[in-house]
Amino acid sequence: MNIVITGGAGFLGQRLAKRLLERGSLSGPSGRAQQIDRITLVDVVPPPESRDRRVATVTGDIADRELLEHAIDSSTTSVFHLAAVVSGMAEADFDLGMRVNIDASRTLLDLCRSRGERPRVVFASSVAVYGGKLPDLVLDTTAVLPQSSYGAQKAIVELLINDYTRRGFIDGRVLRLPTISVRPGRPNAAASSFASGIIREPLNGETAVCPVDPDTRIWVQSPGTAIDCFLQMHEVASDALGSNRIVNAPGLSVTVREMVAALERVAGPTVVSRIRWQRDQRVERIVATWPGAWDTTRARSLGLPHDENFDAIVQAYLREVHPT
Amino acid sequence: MNIVITGGAGFLGQRLAKRLLERGSLSGPSGRAQQIDRITLVDVVPPPESRDRRVATVTGDIADRELLEHAIDSSTTSVFHLAAVVSGMAEADFDLGMRVNIDASRTLLDLCRSRGERPRVVFASSVAVYGGKLPDLVLDTTAVLPQSSYGAQKAIVELLINDYTRRGFIDGRVLRLPTISVRPGRPNAAASSFASGIIREPLNGETAVCPVDPDTRIWVQSPGTAIDCFLQMHEVASDALGSNRIVNAPGLSVTVREMVAALERVAGPTVVSRIRWQRDQRVERIVATWPGAWDTTRARSLGLPHDENFDAIVQAYLREVHPT
Asked: Which of A113, A133, B76, B148 is most open to solvent, judged by the fewest CB atoms within 10 Å of its CB?
């Protein structure tokens, strides 16, 4: 079996590939475990070279149909569709967001359909589909109302995944991710970039700017738990999902103040003093429309894991980047 | 000002054009009333010839960008986007539905954007965006879960209209229509076609087949009220709509049995005896996913009119097709 990961050079894509290689097998379209023969990483930049002979890479513009045709071949039984133009960038360049977040997704789905094998497609959606006046606890039955182009584009692909699945073209699954924290690496153009930056940069001895009010409540998940959720979303039986393929992933509901307090408990006040508070309306406006918590009953019944608390998230990040 | 009506040869498009010509003016982008210089009817079939010199027609495939470029010119201040591949046909021909219901809509929105005048765009959406387990009364905050490709395609364009509006490309408004009854003319490929057929055909001395259980509850609106709702959706101030441009139009919640009882009260038992009850699973499956009633608080606060009862709808239809 060939497993395709779009966004395969990104940090979630890389971790997912690593986990899959370790596992060595994954459920095929029939539901039975199959050996992984190949993992094809598709991304606009080349991923770090892998010594594993099962890893193939396809580098280029994901909105290019020929590129995707090359990646999704007749042996493709699973696709993890993680590639996206992030929120801040989709807001800055509308046409780029439409092209990558919608057009490329549709090409990908049409290719999966044309292969005729009804592959499992796990799509990474986002908390950003929500917006407007939200209840304190967002339910699965709460209407989406995106307040960013990124969120609108994610919500549109969710609808496509549901319909392509209903029609039997694919076996689609949508994981609506919370804000991921702590991401390693450098800040990116996502409006949620600060949610990692205010932990990562101070731990690294650098100053971080927090662009939102400390009482801003966000819904976060660690990268490790996100990967576990992706795998579980892939493995869950199709019947268990029914006609609604969209699952809100479990997260932690924390304020920025609570995140910083956890950082202080784990790493001390000197580290925390490296955070500079400087509100940025552009970021605040987007983040304020995201829900601070959502109901996870369905996610848990499907076996999706969750983080215990934010202290543990900070500790896990520390162990990873500064192994002792 | 040039007003574009897509689906302008259809029965709602024709009525809307007639009403606009009678009015003679409509709110422009500034909100001030402007004289209507031209109404451009876009449709795949030519509309009946009009003697009014303000009427222009553009005939062809709405998914053809050049055709739309021809219709939507720099003097276009309003677009009523009614053209669609109906539910039964979008289910039978997936690619046709995607091309007309999504691709053409996006081209239309992009042209409106490129004209730079932020035209008012009123989009006809549908009850078909809803599905799955619904509350007895669907609220504005109830999540959509389309169970037909038509419904998914309408829900996708709703998201585009909201985002194009948020970004200031257009001044969009979405009217989610109930099932329209009584449509004049002949049956069509919509799953809801029976909701007109069981009234229209018996009144015309013909047999009609009802493909659903008599206790099926549907949410209906008369054509006349639908036109009034389109006009009011266009005229309402942009600020009154806020960030959610989607409005659930007021309808009547009736069972098919109640519709037939109304027909009997208005036209007598002989007429009603022309209905043959023969369930069709394909139709029932689609119709069963539509809500039987939705909350109309917002619609009414925006001044959208509603029908009094189904007897009045049958009477209005009779007056129109059999004027005495």
From this structure: A133
What proportion of chain B, given as a percentage, has pLDDT over 70?
Answer: 99
Q: Is residue B262 part of a domain?
A: no
**Separation of first and last alpha carbons in chain A:** 38
Q: Which residues of B are marked as active site?
A: 150
pLDDT higher than 80, residue A323 = no
Tally Cβ neighbours within 10 Å of residue A185. 10
Residue A257, number of CB atoms within 10 A of its CB: 13
A132–chain B Cβ distance below 8 A for any pair? yes
Chain-chain contact of B162 with A156 (C-beta, under 8 angstroms):
no
**DSSP class of B44:** S
Residue B133 has a pLDDT of 87
CATH number at residue B169: 3.40.50.720
Under 8 Å between Cβ of B94 and B55: no
The residues with which B248 forms a beta bridge, in sequence order, are B176
Q: Is the pLDDT of residue B189 over 90?
A: no
Q: The tokens of A172 are what?
A: 């689609």
**Is A146 within 8 Å of B162 when comparing Cβ atoms?**
yes
ipTM above 0.90, yes or no: yes
Residue A152 forms contact with B (CB below 8 Å) = yes
- Strand-pair partners of B3: B39, B78
Q: How far is CA B136 from the centre of its chain?
A: 23
> Which candidate in B156, B160, B170, B289 is best for mutational testing of the A interface (most A CBs within 10 A)?
B156
Tell the residue number behind the tokens 């979630």, with chain if given.
Answer: A12
**Does the beta-carbon distance from B152 to A146 stay under 8 Å?**
no
Q: In this structure, is residue B23 part of a structural domain?
A: yes
CB proximity B162 to A under 8 Å? yes
Mean of per-residue pLDDT scores for chain B: 95
Shortest alpha-carbon distance between residue A104 and chain B (Å): 14
Predicted confidence band of residue B324 (pLDDT cuts 50, 70, 90): low
Full residue range of the structural domain in which residue A144 is found: 2-178+222-250+294-306
The verdict on A146 touching B (C-beta cutoff 8 Å) is yes
Is the predicted pLDDT of residue A73 greater than 90, yes or no?
yes
Q: Nearest-CA distance from A186 to chain B in Å?
A: 29
Range B258-273 average pLDDT: 97
Q: Do the Cβ atoms of B85 and B96 come closer than 8 Å?
A: yes
Contacts 24+ apart (CB under 8 A), B22-26: B23/B231, B26/B1, B26/B77, B26/B78, B26/B234, B26/B235
Q: Is residue B209 in some structural domain?
A: no
Q: What is the mean pLDDT of residues A128-156?
A: 93
Is the CB of A140 inside 8 Å of chain B's CB atoms?
yes
What is the pLDDT averaged over residues A125-147?
92
Q: Examine residue A44 and state whether it is found in any structural domain, yes or no.
A: yes
CB contact (8 A) between residue A146 and residue B163: yes
CB contact under 8 A, A145 and B94: no
B235 touching A, CB under 8 A? no
Report yes or no: B9 and B60 within 8 Å, Cβ to Cβ: no
Number of structural domains in chain A: 1
Helical (H) or strand (E) element with A229: helix A223-235
**pLDDT (mean) for A60-87:** 96
Average pLDDT over residues B166-193: 93
**What span, in angstroms and rounded, lies between the C-alpha atoms of A8 and A16?**
8
- On chain A, the residues whose CB falls within 8 A of the CB of B159 are 146, 152, 155-156, 159
